[in-house]
Give the backbone structure.
Amino acid sequence: MKSAFAFVTAALTLVSACNTAPSTSRNEVAAVQRIYIIDCGENHAKDVSSWTTAPEDKGKPYVFSNNCYLIQHRTGWMLWDSGNADRIGTVGQVNPRGTLTAYMSKPLVASLKEIGLSPADIRHFAMSHSHGDHSGNANLFVGSRIYMQASEYEAIRGPAPEKMGIPPANFKDLPEANIVKLNGDHDVFGDGAVVIKSTPGHTPGHQSLFVRLPKRGPVLLSGDMVHLKANWDAQRVPLTNYDRERSLLSMKDMQAFLKQTGGELWINHDPEQSRRLPSAPKFVE
């Protein structure tokens, strides 16, 4: 009888301790701690209708934002996209078709330094795709683990990457041993916090990035799956996309995915949305 009473007393003490123990805050358990939105240049278009396909936009100039995203995971840093090349500077560089001029007023290296990092600190690196405004500084990350879709890798290494708007020189220093070739979605850290989503169409192996932020909640970094909010709403595909039907399918897939996850879409090249988000060295949790 005495031993039974002691057992009950111990059990009640354990329950009481559990009920009064301090709760773990959301920040303490979050795999992703924060994300920095880095200004990685501007792209000045002569005629935005090539991207919107809207007749009323014919002949209208437009300035696209261009962001890189630095993600602080509890196990290391990841950079998504590398923007226009630092070497372009404020002089600008015109694309081969003469439709767009890229600028990079603040080098990516300088933006990383403001956060207290250098390219050598980036453990994981991925680009939404291989066009010059996303791969401009890729060669800085030779020590990173690099993630790209196998179809994008093949386009880069293929016989005529320039025909798809891919500058192969942007990848010449990247060690083959560090490149992880994907065939679809990939959970970068293995905990569901940062997931590469396959979204082909703009290029053969285009990909987007899903990130679970501790306070703001889940976000999807669009890459060039979509360029502007108006294109997303109207399901419009730029005239120069590699595959229009695949582009539409990727948008529909990601619409369903965002509805399922309650995620927010961050559109890389949409200047109005970019202005509403804090720029590095500020961050979003």
